[in-house]
Design brief:
The complex is a heterotrimer of chains A (about 300), B (about 325) and C (about 280). Chain B has 12 helices and 2 strands; from the N terminus they run ααββαααααααααα. Chain B is mainly α. In chain B, a hairpin with a 4-residue loop joins strand 1 and strand 2. The longest helix of chain B is centred in the N-terminal third of the chain and has 43 residues. The N terminus of chain C is likely disordered. Classes of the chains: A mainly alpha (about 300), B mainly alpha (about 325), C alpha/beta (about 280).
C-alpha cells in the first residue's frame, strides 16, 4: 500500500513543487503543560468539594442508624417521655402530635395554596395581584420559620390564652403555603396550552377547563409540591417552640399544648442524662424517616409524570 | 345570558346545549375562591408584618434605636439590647456563606459542566437534595455530639499555636460560633447549589459551544465564559443562601452557645436573633416578650431586605437570558 | 370584468353569491392584536353542509378569522374584534352572548392533535358529560369514534391514554371528541399539518363524510388539500402597504373557480404558485 504513495510523492517532487511543506502544529496532548495542569488541579478540587459535601449526610445517617437504631423499639415509639431521672420511656405522644399538626397544616395550606395557584397560573397570570402574590410567595419561602411562630403566637396563642396543636398547625401552614403555591403554579403552567385550548374549544367554562383538564393533568406536579411541603413542615420545629410548646402526654384536644418530635429532640439534646440523649437520637431517626418517606414519595410521583 | 340558547339550532341527535345553571354557579364560585385565595396570601403577608410590627411598637417607643446598639439583655433591670445578636447573626451567616457558597458553587459546576455522566450525576444531585431535607434539629443534635467533639482538639490546637490571631482568640469549650457556622454552611449549601445549577443551566448551549469552538479547555470555558455569563444568577443564589442563614433557628440555638457577647473568635459562644427568640420566648414574661417582638421585627426587616435583593438579582438574571433568546 | 374591478376598487372582498343556506356569516370590520391591525374588512359566509376552505400565505389572518368564528381568540387578552359574526342570524359578538355557549355549538379541531391526558373513552365522552348528557354514553362514544373513522383501531383499547396513539390517530380522536356532541359547525385549523401523508388522506376522506352532517370551515396551508375537499374557497392576502402585515379577504367563490378562473390577479398568482 505504501508503494503508490511513494510514487505519488516522487511524482510531486519530479514535478518540482516549489514550496517546502508547511510545518504542521503539534496536536498531541500535552498533559504537563500549565493549562492542562491547571485544569487537572481545578477538577480535583471540584471532586474533593463534592465528596466533602456528601460527608455530613452520610455521617448524619450513620450516627442516626447507630445511636438511634439501638434505642428504637416499641417502647420508644409508644411510651410517654421520661422525666429527668427516669429510665426507659419514649416519644409516642410526640409522633402523634407531629402527625396531627402536620395534617392540620396540610388541610389548611393545600386548598388555599392550590386555589391561589389556579389564580396565578390560569385565571389572571399577568394581573398586579398575581405578580404581587408570586413575589410575596417567593419572599415567604425565605421567611425565617421562627417568625411564623412569633406571628401565630401573637395572633392565636395570646388570644386563646393557651399553647395548642391548632396554633402549631397554623404556624406550619404559614410555612407550607408558599411552597404549595409555587409548586402548584409551576405544575399547572406545564399543562400544554393546546390541551387548555381543546377544553375551551369544546365549550368549557373556565372553572371546567381547570377542574376537568388542568388539575388532573397537573396533579402529579402539584402532589410532588405538596409532599415536599409536608416533608419540610414535618422537620420544622422552630415555629412550634412557642405555639404548640410541648406536653408530656398524648393529646386529647386541639386546644392544649402538644408534643412534637422536633421539640422533643431540641429539649432532650441539651439534657445531661444519657437516657434522654438516646431518645433524642431515636426520635431523630423517626423524624428523618418521616421526612425521607415524603421526599421519596415526591420523587416517585414527580417521575411518573414522564 | 339565558336568552341566548341557540335553541333554534336544535338538531336531532345533538347534545350541544348551554352550560347549566349549576355550571355557571360552579364557574363563578370556583373563580371567586381562587381570587380570594390569592388575596388571602397577600393579606397574610401584610398581616404578619403589621402584627409583628404592632407588637414591637411598645418596645420600640420605649427603647428606640438604642435597642440596636445596646449589648445588655437583663430581664431583672428591664434593659434590653440586641447588638450582640445582630453581630452574631451577621457573622455566623457570613462565615456560612463563605464556606457554603464556595462549596455550593463548586458543586453546581460539578453537576452541570459534564464532570459526571448519567447515574452518578443523579446520585450526587440526590445527595445534595437530601442534605436539604435533614431537619434543623437533627443537624443540631449531630453538631453537639459529632461535630463539636471532632472540632474541639483542632480548635484548641489552633488557639494554642495561633492564639494571637483574633479568629482563634479563645478556646472551644463546647458550643460556639465556629461549629454553628459550619452546620449553617451545610444547611445553606443545597440552596446555593440548586439555584446556581439553575443559573448555569440557563446559559444558552450556543455560548458554551462558542467557548469550546475557540479552543478553550473545559476550565477556561467555565471560568471565563460560563461563570461570568451565569454570574448574576449565582449572585442571587449567594444572596438567597445568606437570607436563609440569617433566619435559621434550631440548629443555631443548639450549637451557638446563646451567649450575649461580641467576639471575633470562631470558638467563643455567641448568639443570633433567631436563637434568642427560640431560647427566650417560651419562658418570657410580658416585658421580655415586648422586647423579643422588637427583636423579631429586626430579624424580619433584615431577612426581607436580603431576600428582596436576592429575588431582584434573580429576576434580573433570568430577564437577561430571556432578552437574548 | 368591470364589476369585479369596481368591487376591488371599493376595497370590499368579492364573493360570488352563495347557493346554499348560510349558517354563519362573518363580517369583519377590523381585528386587532393590541395596536396591530391583523385583519381588515372581509366578509366570509359559511354555507350549510359544505366545506369552506381558507387559503392564503402565512400571516394573512386565515387562522385568526377561523378562530373568530367560535370566539377562541377571546382567550388572548390583547385581541379585539370589530364587526359581527352572525350564527343563524344572531351576532355571536353581541355583549349578551356567552362565548362558552357559542363553542358548544361550533366545535373546533386544532392544528396540533390535542387529546386530554385521559383515556380514549373519556376523551370522547368529555363533551357529552360536559353537556350533561344522560343517555347511553357507550353508544354515543362508539358512534363518534366510528364517525371519525377510528373505531376499529381503538375499540380494544378504549381505556388506554389518548396520548398513547399515533399522531394521525390522535387527530381523528380529537375529531371524534369534537363530533361526539354533534355540534352544528366544525372549525378545522390546519388539522393535517402535523400528520404524515397517509394520515392526512384519511382525515380528508373523513371531512368529506362529515360534511353530510356538519358545516365545516377549514384552514389549510396546502392548496391541493383545498382543491380536494373544499366546496368553496376563500383566498386571503397580506397587505404590507401600511407598514405592517394586515390580512384581508381577496376573493371567495366555488373552489373550481378560484383555482381555474380566478377573478383577481393576486389569486391567480397565488394558486399558480408564483408567490407565497
Amino acid at each position: 500500500m505504501s508503494e503508490p504513495n511513494l510514487t505519488a510523492t516522487a511524482e510531486l517532487i519530479a514535478l518540482g513543487v516549489p514550496e517546502a511543506p508547511r510545518r504542521l502544529p503539534n496536536l498531541n496532548r500535552a498533559p504537563f503543560e500549565i493549562r492542562a495542569l491547571k485544569s487537572g488541579f481545578l477538577t480535583a478540587l471540584t471532586w474533593i468539594a463534592a465528596l466533602l459535601a456528601s460527608v455530613p449526610l452520610f455521617s448524619v445517617i450513620y450516627r442516626l442508624a447507630i445511636e438511634g437504631g439501638s434505642r428504637l423499639d416499641w417502647e420508644a415509639l409508644t411510651a410517654l417521655p421520661p422525666s429527668a431521672f427516669e429510665q426507659g420511656g419514649g416519644f409516642g405522644n410526640a409522633i402523634v402530635g407531629t402527625l396531627v399538626m402536620v395534617g392540620l397544616a396540610t388541610l389548611i395550606s393545600v386548598p388555599i395554596g392550590i386555589f391561589a395557584a389556579i389564580y396565578l397560573a390560569i385565571l389572571d397570570p399577568d394581573s398586579r395581584l398575581a405578580h404581587s402574590v408570586r413575589f410575596l410567595s417567593k419572599a415567604l419561602t425565605g421567611f425565617p420559620s421562627i417568625l411564623a411562630g412569633v406571628f401565630v403566637y401573637a395572633v392565636l396563642v395570646v388570644t386563646m390564652k393557651t399553647y395548642s396543636a391548632l396554633a402549631g398547625g397554623v404556624a406550619l401552614a404559614v410555612l407550607m403555603l408558599p411552597t404549595v403555591v409555587l409548586a402548584a403554579e409551576q405544575a399547572m403552567m406545564m399543562v400544554p396550552k393546546k390541551m387548555k385550548d381543546a377544553a375551551f374549544g369544546i365549550g368549557c367554562t373556565r372553572a371546567q377547563v381547570i377542574w376537568k383538564v388542568v388539575l388532573p393533568t397537573g396533579a402529579p406536579g402539584i402532589l410532588t409540591g405538596v409532599m415536599l411541603a409536608i416533608a419540610g413542615a414535618a422537620g420544622n420545629s422552630a415555629p412550634l417552640l412557642f405555639t404548640a410548646l410541648f406536653s408530656g402526654y398524648y393529646l386529647t384536644s386541639l386546644t392544649e399544648p402538644t408534643a412534637s418530635l422536633a421539640i422533643l429532640i431540641f429539649n432532650f439534646s441539651g439534657m445531661p442524662y444519657d437516657n434522654q440523649i438516646e431518645l433524642a437520637w431515636a426520635a431523630s431517626l423517626v423524624l428523618v424517616m418521616v421526612v425521607l418517606v415524603f421526599n421519596i414519595l415526591a420523587r416517585i410521583i414527580g417521575r411518573q409524570k414522564h | 345570558m339565558a336568552s341566548h340558547h341557540f335553541d333554534h339550532v336544535d338538531r336531532s341527535g345533538s347534545v350541544s346545549g348551554p352550560p347549566s345553571a349549576g355550571d355557571y354557579i360552579f364557574d363563578r364560585g370556583f373563580r371567586g375562591v381562587a381570587w380570594l385565595s390569592a388575596v388571602f396570601i397577600l393579606a397574610l403577608v401584610v398581616y404578619i408584618v403589621i402584627e409583628i410590627g404592632g407588637k414591637a411598637l411598645p418596645a420600640f417607643s420605649e427603647y428606640g434605636f438604642g435597642f440596636l446598639t445596646s449589648t445588655t439583655w437583663n430581664v431583672q433591670t428591664g434593659q434590653f439590647g440586641i447588638l450582640p445578636e445582630i453581630w452574631g447573626t451577621l457573622y455566623s451567616s457570613l462565615l456560612a456563606l463563605i464556606i457554603g457558597g464556595v462549596f455550593g458553587v463548586a458543586i453546581a459546576i460539578f453537576l452541570t459542566q459534564d464532570f459526571l455522566h448519567g447515574h452518578l450525576a443523579a446520585v450526587f444531585r440526590t445527595i445534595i437534595e437530601l442534605l436539604a431535607a435533614i431537619p434543623s434539629v437533627v443537624y443540631g443534635l449531630w453538631g453537639i455530639y459529632v461535630l463539636i467533639p471532632l472540632l474541639r482538639p483542632v480548635a484548641n490546637w489552633l488557639h494554642g499555636e495561633f492564639g494571637f490571631v483574633p479568629f482563634f482568640g479563645t478556646s472551644l469549650s463546647g458550643p460556639g460560633l465556629g461549629p454553628a457556622a459550619l452546620v449553617l454552611a451545610i444547611m445553606i449549601l443545597p440552596t446555593v447549589a440548586s439555584i446556581s445549577v439553575d443559573a448555569l443551566h440557563q446559559v444558552p448551549y450556543k455560548v458554551k459551544e462558542a467557548a469550546y469552538g475557540m479552543g478553550t479547555t473545559r476550565w477556561e470555558a467555565i471560568l471565563k465564559v460560563m461563570l461570568p455569563t451565569a454570574g448574576s444568577g449565582i449572585l442571587a443564589a449567594l444572596v438567597l443562601g445568606f437570607g436563609r442563614a440569617l433566619g435559621e433557628t434550631m440548629a443555631l440555638a443548639m450549637l451557638i452557645g446563646n451567649s450575649n457577647q461580641i467576639s471575633l473568635s470562631l470558638f467563643s459562644p455567641a448568639n443570633t436573633l433567631a436563637a434568642l427568640l427560640a431560647s427566650s420566648f417560651p419562658e418570657a414574661g410580658p416585658v421580655e416578650v415586648r422586647a423579643l417582638m422588637y427583636a423579631a421585627l429586626v430579624l424580619l426587616a433584615i431577612t426581607l431586605i436580603v431576600n428582596a435583593i436576592g429575588l431582584a438579582v434573580m429576576k434580573f438574571a433570568t430577564r437577561k437570558f430571556e432578552a437574548e433568546r | 370584468m368591470n364589476a369585479t374591478a369596481e368591487m376591488t376598487a371599493a376595497g370590499a372582498a368579492s364573493a360570488s353569491a352563495p347557493t346554499g343556506a348560510i349558517v354563519m356569516n362573518c363580517q369583519i370590520d377590523k381585528v386587532f392584536y393590541g395596536d396591530f391591525l391583523a385583519v381588515r374588512a372581509s366578509t366570509v359566509p359559511i354555507e350549510k353542509n359544505k366545506i369552506t376552505g381558507f387559503i392564503g400565505p402565512s400571516g394573512c389572518g386565515k387562522s385568526t378569522v377561523l378562530r373568530s368564528l367560535n370566539r377562541m381568540n377571546d382567550l388572548i387578552p390583547i385581541f379585539r374584534f370589530e364587526g359581527k359574526v352572525t350564527y343563524h342570524g344572531q351576532d355571536i359578538y353581541d355583549r349578551k352572548v356567552d362565548p362558552v355557549v357559542v363553542r358548544r355549538y361550533i366545535g373546533m379541531v386544532f392544528q396540533q392533535p390535542n387529546p386530554f391526558a385521559m383515556s380514549i373513552y373519556d376523551n370522547v365522552a368529555f363533551g357529552l358529560r360536559l353537556n350533561g348528557f344522560k343517555g347511553n354514553l357507550d353508544e354515543r362514544v362508539e358512534k363518534a369514534l366510528k364517525g371519525a373513522a377510528c373505531w376499529n383501531e381503538v375499540k380494544d383499547k378504549l381505556k388506554n391514554s389518548g396520548l398513547s396513539l399515533s399522531g394521525g390517530q390522535q387527530q381523528r380522536l380529537c375529531i371524534a371528541r369534537a363530533i361526539a356532541t354533534e355540534p352544528d359547525v366544525l372549525l378545522m385549523d390546519e388539522p393535517c399539518s402535523a400528520l404524515d401523508p397517509i394520515a392526512t388522506r384519511r382525515v380528508e376522506e373523513l371531512m368529506l363524510e362529515l360534511k353530510e352532517k356538519y358545516t365545516i370551515a377549514l384552514v389549510t396551508h396546502n392548496m391541493q388539500q383545498a382543491t380536494r375537499v373544499a366546496d368553496t374557497t376563500a383566498f386571503f392576502g397580506v397587505d404590507i402597504s401600511q407598514g405592517s402585515r394586515t390580512g384581508y379577504l381577496v376573493e371567495m367563490g366555488p373552489t373550481r373557480q378560484i383555482f381555474e378562473d380566478p377573478q383577481e390577479k393576486l389569486t391567480g398568482e397565488y394558486v399558480r404558485g408564483e408567490f407565497s
